[in-house]
# Entry
Amino acid sequence: MSLISSDFRPRLVLASNSPRRRQLLTELGLTYELRLREVDESFPTHLVRAEVAEYLAAHKADAYATDLAPDELVITADTIVCLDNDVLNKPADEAEAVQMLQRLQGRAHDVYTGVCLLHGDGRRVVFSDQTGVHFRPLSLPEIEHYVHQYRPLDKAGAYGAQDWIGMVAVTRLEGSYFNVMGLPVHRVWEELVKLGAVAV
# Structure
Protein backbone atom coordinates (compact mmCIF):
# COMPACT_ATOMS: atom_id res chain seq x y z
CA MET A 1 0.00 0.00 0.00
CA SER A 2 1.29 3.44 -0.86
CA LEU A 3 -0.29 6.73 0.05
CA ILE A 4 -0.86 9.12 -2.82
CA SER A 5 0.62 12.55 -2.20
CA SER A 6 -1.44 15.64 -2.89
CA ASP A 7 -0.81 19.35 -2.50
CA PHE A 8 -4.43 19.71 -1.42
CA ARG A 9 -4.35 17.06 1.28
CA PRO A 10 -4.42 18.51 4.82
CA ARG A 11 -1.42 18.12 7.09
CA LEU A 12 -2.28 15.87 10.03
CA VAL A 13 -1.74 16.98 13.62
CA LEU A 14 -2.02 14.47 16.47
CA ALA A 15 -2.95 16.07 19.78
CA SER A 16 -2.28 13.21 22.20
CA ASN A 17 0.24 12.24 24.86
CA SER A 18 -0.49 8.57 24.25
CA PRO A 19 2.45 6.60 22.82
CA ARG A 20 -0.06 3.96 21.72
CA ARG A 21 -1.96 6.42 19.52
CA ARG A 22 1.30 7.61 17.99
CA GLN A 23 2.27 4.01 17.29
CA LEU A 24 -1.07 3.20 15.65
CA LEU A 25 -1.06 6.25 13.37
CA THR A 26 2.54 5.53 12.39
CA GLU A 27 1.68 1.91 11.61
CA LEU A 28 -1.16 3.17 9.39
CA GLY A 29 1.54 4.82 7.31
CA LEU A 30 0.48 8.35 8.19
CA THR A 31 2.77 11.32 8.62
CA TYR A 32 1.74 13.74 11.34
CA GLU A 33 2.97 16.51 13.60
CA LEU A 34 2.66 16.03 17.36
CA ARG A 35 1.13 19.03 19.11
CA LEU A 36 0.41 18.91 22.85
CA ARG A 37 -1.27 21.08 25.44
CA GLU A 38 -3.01 20.58 28.75
CA VAL A 39 -6.81 20.24 28.51
CA ASP A 40 -9.30 19.81 31.35
CA GLU A 41 -10.77 16.29 31.17
CA SER A 42 -13.86 16.85 33.33
CA PHE A 43 -17.27 16.34 31.73
CA PRO A 44 -20.94 17.08 32.48
CA THR A 45 -22.36 14.53 34.88
CA HIS A 46 -25.48 13.89 32.80
CA LEU A 47 -23.44 12.35 29.98
CA VAL A 48 -23.12 8.56 29.83
CA ARG A 49 -20.89 6.10 28.06
CA ALA A 50 -20.15 7.03 24.42
CA GLU A 51 -21.39 10.56 25.06
CA VAL A 52 -18.55 11.09 27.56
CA ALA A 53 -15.86 9.86 25.17
CA GLU A 54 -17.16 11.98 22.28
CA TYR A 55 -17.55 15.06 24.48
CA LEU A 56 -13.98 14.81 25.74
CA ALA A 57 -12.54 14.25 22.26
CA ALA A 58 -14.41 17.28 20.91
CA HIS A 59 -13.46 19.35 23.95
CA LYS A 60 -9.79 18.58 23.35
CA ALA A 61 -10.11 19.57 19.70
CA ASP A 62 -11.66 22.90 20.70
CA ALA A 63 -8.38 23.78 22.42
CA TYR A 64 -6.66 23.75 19.01
CA ALA A 65 -9.41 25.33 16.90
CA THR A 66 -8.02 28.87 16.81
CA ASP A 67 -4.47 27.71 16.06
CA LEU A 68 -5.12 25.46 13.07
CA ALA A 69 -3.96 26.58 9.66
CA PRO A 70 -6.52 26.15 6.83
CA ASP A 71 -4.56 23.15 5.53
CA GLU A 72 -4.25 21.34 8.87
CA LEU A 73 -6.42 18.63 10.44
CA VAL A 74 -6.11 17.82 14.13
CA ILE A 75 -6.91 14.40 15.57
CA THR A 76 -7.95 14.20 19.23
CA ALA A 77 -9.20 11.19 21.15
CA ASP A 78 -10.28 10.08 24.59
CA THR A 79 -10.73 6.55 25.91
CA ILE A 80 -12.94 5.65 28.84
CA VAL A 81 -13.80 2.40 30.59
CA CYS A 82 -17.42 1.83 31.63
CA LEU A 83 -18.56 -0.70 34.20
CA ASP A 84 -22.33 -0.67 34.01
CA ASN A 85 -22.92 3.11 33.81
CA ASP A 86 -19.91 4.12 35.91
CA VAL A 87 -17.08 5.82 34.04
CA LEU A 88 -13.66 4.63 35.20
CA ASN A 89 -11.21 7.23 33.97
CA LYS A 90 -7.52 7.54 34.87
CA PRO A 91 -6.82 6.61 38.51
CA ALA A 92 -5.48 9.31 40.80
CA ASP A 93 -2.98 6.99 42.49
CA GLU A 94 -2.01 3.35 42.91
CA ALA A 95 -4.64 2.74 45.58
CA GLU A 96 -7.42 3.86 43.24
CA ALA A 97 -5.92 1.78 40.43
CA VAL A 98 -6.11 -1.32 42.62
CA GLN A 99 -9.71 -0.49 43.53
CA MET A 100 -10.68 -0.09 39.85
CA LEU A 101 -9.15 -3.41 38.89
CA GLN A 102 -10.85 -5.13 41.80
CA ARG A 103 -14.15 -3.91 40.38
CA LEU A 104 -13.28 -5.02 36.85
CA GLN A 105 -11.90 -8.48 37.65
CA GLY A 106 -14.18 -11.37 36.81
CA ARG A 107 -16.59 -9.14 34.88
CA ALA A 108 -17.27 -7.74 31.44
CA HIS A 109 -16.98 -4.02 30.79
CA ASP A 110 -17.06 -1.65 27.83
CA VAL A 111 -14.29 0.51 26.42
CA TYR A 112 -15.28 3.59 24.43
CA THR A 113 -12.89 5.75 22.46
CA GLY A 114 -14.20 9.07 21.20
CA VAL A 115 -12.43 10.74 18.29
CA CYS A 116 -12.67 14.24 16.87
CA LEU A 117 -11.23 15.20 13.48
CA LEU A 118 -11.16 18.98 13.19
CA HIS A 119 -10.14 20.53 9.87
CA GLY A 120 -8.65 23.98 9.69
CA ASP A 121 -11.47 25.01 7.35
CA GLY A 122 -14.01 24.35 10.12
CA ARG A 123 -15.21 20.88 9.19
CA ARG A 124 -15.59 18.63 12.20
CA VAL A 125 -16.30 14.91 12.56
CA VAL A 126 -16.93 13.35 15.99
CA PHE A 127 -17.50 9.64 16.48
CA SER A 128 -16.83 6.82 18.91
CA ASP A 129 -16.27 3.09 18.91
CA GLN A 130 -17.15 0.51 21.56
CA THR A 131 -15.44 -2.73 22.52
CA GLY A 132 -16.64 -5.27 25.09
CA VAL A 133 -13.83 -6.64 27.27
CA HIS A 134 -14.09 -9.73 29.47
CA PHE A 135 -11.73 -10.17 32.45
CA ARG A 136 -11.17 -13.45 34.23
CA PRO A 137 -11.19 -13.34 38.04
CA LEU A 138 -7.95 -11.85 39.41
CA SER A 139 -6.42 -12.22 42.84
CA LEU A 140 -5.41 -9.19 44.85
CA PRO A 141 -1.69 -10.15 44.58
CA GLU A 142 -2.04 -10.25 40.77
CA ILE A 143 -3.67 -6.84 40.71
CA GLU A 144 -1.11 -5.31 43.07
CA HIS A 145 1.76 -6.81 41.05
CA TYR A 146 0.44 -5.21 37.88
CA VAL A 147 -0.19 -1.81 39.46
CA HIS A 148 3.19 -1.66 41.22
CA GLN A 149 5.21 -2.93 38.26
CA TYR A 150 3.42 -1.15 35.42
CA ARG A 151 1.95 1.93 37.16
CA PRO A 152 -1.07 2.31 34.84
CA LEU A 153 -1.99 5.74 36.21
CA ASP A 154 -2.22 7.25 32.73
CA LYS A 155 -4.74 4.67 31.51
CA ALA A 156 -8.53 4.69 31.68
CA GLY A 157 -9.74 1.91 33.95
CA ALA A 158 -6.19 1.51 35.30
CA TYR A 159 -5.05 -0.96 32.67
CA GLY A 160 -3.58 -1.28 29.21
CA ALA A 161 -4.70 -4.24 27.11
CA GLN A 162 -1.23 -4.37 25.55
CA ASP A 163 0.37 -4.77 29.02
CA TRP A 164 0.98 -7.85 31.15
CA ILE A 165 -2.55 -7.68 32.53
CA GLY A 166 -4.00 -7.88 29.05
CA MET A 167 -2.17 -11.15 28.49
CA VAL A 168 -3.23 -12.74 31.76
CA ALA A 169 -6.70 -11.25 32.35
CA VAL A 170 -8.50 -10.57 29.05
CA THR A 171 -10.40 -13.67 27.99
CA ARG A 172 -12.52 -12.22 25.19
CA LEU A 173 -13.02 -9.07 23.16
CA GLU A 174 -16.15 -8.02 21.30
CA GLY A 175 -15.03 -5.34 18.89
CA SER A 176 -11.74 -3.72 17.96
CA TYR A 177 -8.62 -4.48 20.00
CA PHE A 178 -7.05 -1.25 18.74
CA ASN A 179 -10.00 0.67 20.16
CA VAL A 180 -9.07 -0.70 23.60
CA MET A 181 -5.49 0.46 22.97
CA GLY A 182 -6.84 3.96 22.47
CA LEU A 183 -7.74 4.51 18.82
CA PRO A 184 -10.31 2.81 16.56
CA VAL A 185 -7.99 2.95 13.58
CA HIS A 186 -10.49 1.41 11.16
CA ARG A 187 -12.93 4.26 11.79
CA VAL A 188 -10.18 6.90 11.81
CA TRP A 189 -8.94 5.72 8.42
CA GLU A 190 -12.47 5.65 6.99
CA GLU A 191 -13.21 9.20 8.13
CA LEU A 192 -9.84 10.53 6.94
CA VAL A 193 -10.56 9.11 3.50
CA LYS A 194 -13.95 10.85 3.47
CA LEU A 195 -12.25 14.13 4.42
CA GLY A 196 -9.70 13.74 1.64
CA ALA A 197 -6.85 13.49 4.14
CA VAL A 198 -5.55 10.14 2.86
CA ALA A 199 -5.92 8.08 -0.29
CA VAL A 200 -4.57 4.80 -1.62
Q: What stands out?
A: Confidence is low (pLDDT under 50) at residues 1-5. The radius of gyration is 17 Å. The longest strand covers residues 72-83. Residues 79 and 182 are 6 Å apart (CA to CA).
